[in-house]
Amino acid sequence: MLEINEQFARDYFKDSRLAPQFDPASAAEPKDNGDIGLDAEIDVDSWLLAVDGAREGVIPESGLDIAAIKALPHVEMVTELKCIEGWSQVVHWEVHALRILLNITVRMK
């Protein structure tokens, strides 16, 4: 079974399967879409991300605030957003990778 998993990982997770990158000059803001159920504004300053199973002392029990998340390493890319409604747009993404957060915080079993 281990050999099958290894072969799957080699075949599936390779650079040729990654989303194509585009010139940053071609990026634009995607259209506002899908705001049903989002009636209230979100108070980002009071928002916290709780991480269950974090290593002791790495994340405060109260969670991470937006400033702490923004201080994490991040990844930037320019790729195509393909909406299920049929439209697409080249967009610039700047994300704080979940993988990085998990590597910093979560106990591996």
SSE class: alpha+beta
Give the strand order of the largest sheet, numbering strands 1, 2, ... along the chain.
Answer: 1-2
The rounded distance between the terminal residues' Cα atoms is 20 Å
Radius of gyration: 18 Å
What is the global morphology? Answer: extended
Integer tally of domains: 1
Q: Uncertain spans, ≥5 residues at pLDDT below 50?
A: none
Helix count? 3
N-to-C SSE string, H for helix and E for strand: HEEHEEH
Mean pLDDT value = 80
Main sheet properties: 2 strands, antiparallel
Describe the structure.
This protein is α+β, with helices and mostly antiparallel strands. The protein has one domain (17-105). The chain contains three helices and four strands; from the N terminus they run αββαββα. The chain has helices at 2-12, 66-70, 98-105, and strands at residues 48-49, 64-65, 75-82, 88-95. The strands form two sheets. The protein has a two-stranded antiparallel ribbon. The longest helix is centred in the N-terminal third of the chain and has 11 residues, at 2-12. It is extended and about 40 Å long. 1% of the residues are buried.
